[in-house]
Amino acid sequence: MKRRYDHIDLRVRSLAEARPFYEALLPVLGFRREDSSEKWLEFEFEGEGVTDYFAVTESATHQPGESRIAFWAESAAEVDRVGDLLRRIGARNIEGPGYEAEHYYAVFFEDPCGNRFELCHRSRN
């Protein structure tokens, strides 16, 4: 399958506040810590060669928008497992997990800085 994106370069208002959240969440989603520094968190997807990565950096004036990033889950059980983790690591405004439609199981949440995310499992009819 072709890659669907290269990377996500996310801004947060406080890297110190967001760092523990992403250090707990991203490895569970298949990313591994790769090349982080004081100013950047960079997590690369586990795999061969060039892979997707997720980077987080601070912008003191950052204001979260209405956009949402959705991660793929292999199963509804994985959505449930991550939903439990979200409650433990400080996610905000958690909705679900649950069915949004007959074949769409998801949990919606925000990071500590208000950025919006989703983890979903879609199955065919």
UniProtKB/TrEMBL annotation:
Superkingdom of the source species: Bacteria
Classification via Pfam families: Glyoxalase (PF00903)
UniProt domain VOC: residue ranges: 4-122
Database matches in Gene3D superfamilies: 2,3-Dihydroxybiphenyl 1,2-Dioxygenase, domain 1
PANTHER family: GLYOXALASE FAMILY PROTEIN (AFU_ORTHOLOGUE AFUA_5G14830)
Name used for this protein in its record: Glyoxalase
